[in-house]
Amino acid sequence: MEQIITCINCPVGCRMTVQISDNGSFLSVSGNTCPRGAKYAQQECTIPKRMITAVIPVRGSSVPLSVKTAEPVPKKLIPEIMSELAEVTVMLPVHSGDTIIPDVLDSGVDIIATRSLP
Amino acid sequence: MTDQYVDILIIGAGPAGLAAAISARESGMESVLVLERESEPGGILRQCIHNGFGLHRFHEELTGPEYAQRDIDRIRELDIRVECGVTVLSLSAQRIVTCVSPVYGFRTIRAGAVVLAMGCRERPRGALCTPGTRCAGIFSAGTAQRFVNLEGWMPGKRVVILGSGDIGLIMARRMTLQGANVLACVEIMPYSSGLNRNIVQCLQDYDIPLYLSHTVTDIRGRDRLEGLTVSRVDENRNPVPGTEIDFECDTLLLSCGLIPENELSSGAGVEISGITAGPVVNNHFETSVPGIFACGNVLHVHDLVDHVSDESFKAGRAAASFVNSNNVSIGFITIKDGAGVRGTVPQKIRLDLSENTELMFRPSAVFRNATVIAEADGKVIAQKKAMIFTPGEMASITLKPKDISSVSGNSLTIRIESED
User: Fold this and answer.
1) Which of B196, B362, B389 would you mutate first to test chain A, the one with the most A CBs within 10 A?
2) Where are the domains positioned within chain B?
3) Architecture of the domain made up of B330-420
4) How buried is B8 (Cβ within 10 angstroms: 0-12 exposed, 13-18 middle, 19+ buried)?
5) Mind giving me the DSSP string for B30-54?
6) β-strands B251-254, B138-140: how paired?
7) Could you give the C-alpha distances from B372 to B71, B334, B364, B367, B399, in angstroms and in order?
């Protein structure tokens, strides 16, 4: 199977063609102009990952709390993580870097605050 | 007669103002004052909760609030005074500022040097000549971003985005993640002005269609937006009859360009460039009015905050040096935009150039395997190759003092030469 991917590493934005086997494993890539492109293509075709950022309400604060995943998480977890975030209750004060949800959905990645609320 | 004197007065506590304040203090200025209209420092970064900031400056990917916090922490360490909730009303060529705030009342402040760091604002609906009714539900993308990320409101449920600049793309993802249904992103040009990574991560990831060479041709709704029509445009950007697509939606976000905010600058008699819409500056980021400096998005709209900070550190240092020595230039070389180049900043270089100077500009089109050339007296004095230049990414070339000392005329041209 063939998949077309636009590389996002730099502004050149190479259009790469990736060959994937029937069981979904990565076979080869063409159309990239540097090794970073090849690495991205492989990651993107096997387990694509994204950073998630969001805001959540905080009791007693008119300003919502901005949060992020401490590292990129598998893309397919995004809707579930957003549902988790809709449920969480945060109390003041919060410091930037505080863990809001440890090991979200057993992904091994924490959700952390990206701002402080006194 | 003024109420107060400060050595360095900075207008705006966004990334540009904070960096200028830090470098002015680090250059030995004791009295530095930053005036900020909002209730907190940080500028637009406060509402940019997505990540991707700081790769160049800190070699890590930060969110907007995290990036701003690093500068705010440094401002506190250096004990620099930042007054929030203060609106500057006017600035004069004599560097006298009038300002007003609920806390400090009306004041006049005289400054040894002023740094303009007011940033930019979004092009509003009125400047776009959109057709249709004047109903509620039409926001600039940045306004919607403020509502969602700082005030905790969702502006609507079914959303169309006009313009595919980065803020529009980021908001397409943001609105989707917070539960809205984003129906389409519509771009009048045949290409997006946003970064590739944002097209992939903000539109493709969420299956949001991007309509290139399309625009909004009707807006319907009495009180609230009810629907709109999108049509394809021809090469002259005129709508093509018979290509209409109707969308039922309650929200339209506009992401159609940014304009430097220079009302204060103009009031002081600062010369404004017709191309960048920001002040004309020399390599010290000094405007046409001695002692008034400009940096960040008020000077020219940047793609990356890292570049804003870098530029503003230089402007803060230059402002400090002006207060210390009041040095006036003996003369300038004027920088001109040549083929393929738009909006080069700075527009002038002092003849007594003592350090390397980066000239920043926007390519006017996409050029592959191209060379940017600095040319004076018919000779190439500097050049730099790149695999690609695109209008969406600011480009630069660096001149050394010896490059300038060899110039006998009073102008220098920057141009792009493509091999294709």
Assistant:
1) B196
2) 1-121+258-328, 124-256, 330-420
3) Sandwich (2.60)
4) buried
5) S-EEEE-SSSSSSGGGGG--SEEE-
6) parallel
7) 33, 17, 12, 10, 12
| Its pTM surpasses 0.90 | yes
Instruction: Give the residue on A whose Cα is nearest the Cα of B175.
Output: A54
The domain locations on chain A are 2-46, 53-113
> What is the distance between the alpha carbons of residues B188 and B109, in angstroms, rounded to a whole number?
46
Residues 313-352 of B with CB under 8 A from A: none
> In terms of CATH, what superfamily is A53-113?
CPE0013-like (3.10.530.10)
Residue of B nearest to A71 (CA): B61
**Angle of CA points A63, B150, A52, to nearest 5°:** 105
- Are A55 and B148 inside 8 Å of each other by CB? yes
Name the strands in the sheet holding B357-363, side by side, starting at the edge strand that comes first in the sequence: B341-345, B357-363, B395-399
- Both tokens assigned to A96: 């930037």
Interchain pair A115, B65: CB under 8 A: yes
The minimum CA-CA distance between B149 and chain A, rounded to whole Å, is 6
Q: Three-state SS string across A49-60, please? A: EECCEEEECECC
Report the chain A residue with the minimal C-alpha distance to residue B66.
Answer: A114
Domain B1-121+258-328 matches domain B330-420 at the CATH topology level: no
Q: How many CB pairs under 8 A join A and B?
A: 68
Contact A8 B200 (CB under 8 A): yes
Residue of B201, B205, B388 with shortest CB distance to A11: B388
Q: Does B151 touch chain A (CB under 8 A)?
A: yes
In tens, the pLDDT along B163-199 reads 998 899 999 999 999 999 999 999 999 988 888 888 9
State CA B261 to chain mean position distance. 9
Smallest Cβ distance to B388: which of A7, A8, A12? Answer: A12
Note the pLDDT tens digit of each residue in A49-85. Answer: 999 999 999 988 888 999 999 999 999 999 999 999 9
As a CATH number, domain B124-256 is: 3.50.50.60
Is this complex scored with an ipTM above 0.85? Answer: yes
